[in-house]
C-alpha cells in the first residue's frame, strides 16, 4: 500500500534526521581521532543507530522514493537494491556498538574500531549519495532527448 506523497512536514522531518545523522558521524570521527572514552562513542553510535532507523523507516514505508519512482519507474530496480542495503548497514552499525561495549580496557582495540568505523561511514555516505542520485535521475530531463 502506497502512502500519499510527501508533504512539507515529512520533508522537514527527513532533513532533521539527516542533519542529526551528519552530526553523529562528524562527532564520531572527531571523538575517535581524539581517543574519546567508550561512553561518548557509545552515545554517538546509539544516536546514529536511532536516527538511521527512523531514516530507513521513512524510506521503507513509502513516500521518499515513491514520487521519484512514479515519475520514472525504470529506477525501481535501483531503489529495491538501495532498500536491500538497509538491513546490512543497520547490522554493521550494531556490530560497531557491540565492539565498543565489549572493548577491553587497553586501547589496542581503537585502531581496528577506527578502521571499521571509517569503512561503515564510507558505505553509509555512498548509500545516501546513491539515493539522492536516484531522486535526481528521476526528475532529470536529458537535453539530448529533445533532438
Quick recap of the structure?
The chain is mainly alpha-helical. It is 77% helix and 0% strand.
Shape: elongated
| SSE string, helices as H and strands as E | HHHHH
Structural class: mainly alpha
Major β-sheet annotation: none
Number of strands: 0
User: What is the correct CATH architecture?
Assistant: Up-down Bundle
Number of structural units classed as domains? 1
The CATH topology label is Four Helix Bundle (Hemerythrin (Met), subunit A)
The share of residues in helices is over 70%
Mean pLDDT across all amino acids: 87
- List the uncertain runs: none
- As a whole number of angstroms, the C-alpha radius of gyration is 18 Å
Multimeric organization:
single chain
Report the CATH C-level class.
Answer: Mainly Alpha
Count of helical stretches:
5
Amino acid at each position: 500500500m502506497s502512502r500519499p506523497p510527501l508533504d512539507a512536514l515529512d520533508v522537514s522531518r527527513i532533513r532533521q534526521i539527516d542533519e542529526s545523522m551528519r552530526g553523529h558521524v562528524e562527532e564520531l570521527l572527531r571523538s575517535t581521532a581524539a581517543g574519546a572514552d567508550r561512553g561518548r562513542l557509545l552515545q554517538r553510535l546509539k544516536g546514529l543507530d536511532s536516527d538511521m532507523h527512523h531514516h530507513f523507516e521513512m524510506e521503507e514505508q513509502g513516500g521518499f522514493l515513491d514520487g521519484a519512482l512514479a515519475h520514472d519507474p525504470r529506477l525501481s530496480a535501483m531503489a529495491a537494491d538501495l532498500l536491500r542495503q538497509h538491513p546490512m548497514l543497520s547490522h554493521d552499525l550494531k556490530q560497531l556498538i557491540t565492539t565498543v561495549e565489549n572493548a577491553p580496557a587497553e586501547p589496542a582495540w581503537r585502531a581496528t574500531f577506527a578502521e571499521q568505523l571509517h569503512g561503515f561511514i564510507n558505505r553509509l555516505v555512498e548509500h545516501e549519495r546513491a539515493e539522492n542520485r536516484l531522486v535526481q535521475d528521476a526528475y532529470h530531463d536529458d537535453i539530448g532527448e529533445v533532438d
